[in-house]
Write a structure and sequence with these properties.
The protein starts with 16 loop residues before the first helix and ends with a helix. The protein has helices at about 15-40, 45-65, 70-80, 85-100, 125-145, 155-170, 175-210, 215-240, 250-275, 285, 290-325, 335-365, 370-390, 395-450, 455-480, 485-495, 505-535, and strands spanning about 105-110, 330-335. The longest helix has about 55 residues, at about 395-450. The protein is mainly α and about 525 residues long. It is elongated.
Length: about 525
């Protein structure tokens, strides 16, 4: 099934009951956070300040769930391997599990070391910076979600900390080398994701889809593809999802992942063979073999995301809590369980209320995904993070996943252009056959005239002229100078212009990526001065 025509300008939807219920749900969560923080912070000297910070942290977590989780489950939904409702349930369970089980008990209070804490004057200034960063990042994510743009929550909080830090202590407070690495990730992340996803899709097309006996090819290669996915995801989960529980290096994680992959290969190979034998010899049938791996990939990506990105919501909140309790500024802070719960539950609530919009965007509104293409996106998401982390490259999981979706779409467009060339060659062959038939007819006419006693010279001259014309046309066909008819040109032009990637989505997402850090930074600077003015 090809990408359906989607209008660039969508009709505005009226604010209805469903939207009111979503707002009530989000507001109810914030009220619970207020009660929760108030109950657990009783007796603290700055209780009100902590409650306000908890509200900002909960709001940030809501927006992470609404925006960022779509990258983990969107491709599986777009491929129809799972429904949106099922994806939300799976993502909610595994996001919360990743946050609470493997979220870690220590996070960096100043994200990625982008500002120098020694240049911050006092504890109050630090608290105001963290509060401004949380609020700015949350509001920017909220705006991006409203416009349907999947953006990096890490970049949003980085921009917030940078903007508030500059407002508090000037430009020297920022580690510009670290910021340069973050900016480079805007290009590195989507490019790597797109290239790896396209490479996997090209391999599957060549080795399975374009084979005459697709079932035989599937029996040989699908178990290998599932084993590769298992190896990648096992390594990914150990390194990125369980690193707070089990400290291990890349080599050990890769060996453990390989053992798991080999065991799963031996288990799934006979099962895949039985399934393939019962399926028709079509691409659609082969697609079904990737359904279960896609569901597992969505769950594992959600677990790793919860374990890592919960820090974007609760890291600054944990830093504020630590500063209020200790009265000092530390680059690392232990996370109380109540803070972890706020982050985990906020992600789940945000996902349930507002996640489906971005899930649809990533899964079906950029390019048409089936199970094989979604598999390539999931593989790219895991492999790119692993490779980049080992090379020391700062990458965004959001940019990788969305870049992988675009990579799959642009590869399909490239392959379609090759098919257009084949159509042109077929048209040339048809023209050649037609002209050869005409030439034979004229030759037979000449032979018939030659048998007559009286021959009209005009007829002979006319036939010879036509024969020469047909010879010239045939020569042009062989030389690639065929002149197609207007109808044929129009048809080929329509095929060439057929786009499999929605260009308006591409422009909107790139624009959102480019302005995430400066936009959240500007907002954070404004909020810093507002908070400082209120509290001084």
């Amino acid at each position: 099934m090809e990408l359906k025509s989607i209008k660039d300008i969508k009709s505005a939807e009226k604010f209805g009951i469903a939207d009111i219920m979503k707002l009530l749900g989000a507001f109810s969560f914030i009220l619970v956070v207020i009660w929760y923080a108030s109950h657990l912070s009783s007796g603290m000297p700055e209780k009100t300040l902590l409650i306000v910070a908890a509200i900002f942290g909960g709001y940030m977590a809501l927006n992470i769930g609404a925006n960022d989780v779509a990258n983990n489950v969107g491709p599986a939904v777009g491929a129809q391997a799972i429904t949106i409702f099922g994806a939300v349930i799976i993502a909610a369970i595994f996001e919360a599990s990743g946050s609470l089980i493997a979220g870690g008990d220590v996070v960096g209070t100043i994200k990625n070391g982008i500002i120098n804490p020694t240049l911050i004057k006092d504890t109050n200034t630090f608290i105001w910076i963290m509060m401004a960063a949380l609020l700015a990042g949350a509001i920017w994510l909220n705006l991006a979600t409203a416009f349907g743009a999947p953006v990096s929550t890490t970049h949003a909080i980085v921009g917030g900390v940078t903007g508030a830090g500059i407002a508090a202590a000037g430009f020297d407070v920022v580690s510009w080398g670290k910021m340069g690495e973050i900016v480079s990730s805007w290009v590195i992340s989507p490019f790597l994701g797109g290239v790896i996803a396209a490479a996997f899709l090209l391999f599957i097309k060549k080795m399975i889809i374009h084979q005459d006996d697709k079932r035989l090819a599937a029996k040989a290669y699908v178990p290998i593809m599932i084993a590769l996915m298992t190896w990648a995801f096992s390594t990914y989960i150990i390194l990125k999802g369980l690193n707070h529980l089990v400290h291990t290096n890349f080599f050990a994680a890769a060996v453990i992942g390989l053992i798991v992959a080999i065991a799963l290969f031996l288990f799934t190979k006979p099962a895949i063979a039985r399934m393939a034998d019962s399926l028709p010899n079509t691409r659609e049938a082969v697609n079904k073999l990737f359904n279960i791996p896609l569901i597992f990939s969505a769950a594992l990506l959600s677990f790793a995301h919860g374990a890592n990105d919960v820090a974007n919501a609760i890291g600054p909140l944990a830093g504020i809590y630590d500063a209020l309790v200790s009265g000092g500024i530390s680059t690392k802070a232990s996370i109380p369980m109540w803070v972890m719960v706020v982050g985990a539950m906020g992600i789940v609530v945000g996902l349930a209320l507002y996640g489906p919009k971005l899930i649809k965007t990533v899964g079906s509104e950029i390019t048409e995904l089936d199970q094989i293409r979604a598999y390539c996106v999931a593989m790219s998401a895991a492999l790119t993070v692993i490779v980049a982390s080992q090379l020391g490259l700062p990458v965004s999981s959001t940019h990788i996943a969305v870049g992988a979706v675009f990579g799959v779409g642009f590869l399909r467009e490239y392959l379609m252009r090759d098919r257009v060339k084949e159509v042109e060659e077929d048209l040339q062959q048809i023209k050649l056959d037609q002209e050869m038939e005409k030439l034979e007819e004229y030759k037979h006419s000449l032979e018939s005239l030659g048998k007559l006693k009286k021959v009209d010279p005009f007829l002979v001259k006319n036939l010879m002229s036509k024969i020469n014309e047909e010879k010239a046309i045939i020569r042009h066909v062989y030389e690639g100078e065929l002149e197609l008819s207007k109808v044929e040109k129009k048809a080929l032009k329509a095929v060439k212009k057929h786009e499999l990637v929605k260009r308006s989505a591409l422009k909107m997402i790139i624009a959102a990526w480019l302005i995430t850090v400066p936009a959240s930074g500007l907002l954070a600077a404004i909020f810093y001065f507002m908070i400082r003015g209120i509290l001084l």
